[in-house]
């Protein structure tokens, strides 16, 4: 039996070696696969991919990451609404909407942490819908493809923006926005119902002005416990709004 098994394996293995994909050897031979090196482009090289200077194609960069946007040539090619984005990194313009030469820059040092969230949403869009080409040498990546200090600062600011967004969402759950309406006869009024500010709940609460830390404005919010709210320096009574609190059996915030 052992002799027969050895004969079968001896006949099968040469055929198996022919048909096993090469990638399997890369995986099981040393435990890793060979990853092709990341392509690094200079600003001069990417400028050749603007659809005008040559017939190389259409590239754009955002935060130093380069994408092939040829499939969207009607947007990014000559005559397209976003042609000014091609052949360069114009990260700032994604936020400001300034499409002049001064605004078409990769300098995002003036962008707020909250705005960086929107910029990274754009980056995620290109990562999802377009082919990644490589990295642009310059502000965000070095000649060896390593992140620069400028990119690290952007990432740190992004982390702050995401934390602030999380805090705002938690605040919205705790203090939903008031209902409001305006009419010629009654003028404006605000009140609190069991659904306002996009939040469903089983209590109505009373309107209060909320002064959010880090924000220059105020907003009308619904507060469940007006007596406790009076102890919060960021909450003030909303003049002219009658109390409309109701009890509820669910747990308090």
TrEMBL record:
Domain of life assignment: Eukaryota
InterPro entries, per this entry? Cyt_B5-like_heme/steroid-bd, Cyt_B5-like_heme/steroid_sf, MAPR/NEUFC/NENF-like
Pfam families noted in UniProt:
Cyt-b5
Query: In this protein, which residues make up the domain named Cytochrome b5 heme-binding?
Result: 41-137
Q: Which family does it belong to?
A: Belongs to the cytochrome b5 family. MAPR subfamily.
Q: What does this protein do?
A: Heme-binding protein which promotes neuronal but not astrocyte differentiation.
The protein, known as: Neuferricin
Q: Species lineage, top-down?
A: Eukaryota, Metazoa, Chordata, Craniata, Vertebrata
Q: Which gene encodes it?
A: LOC117538460
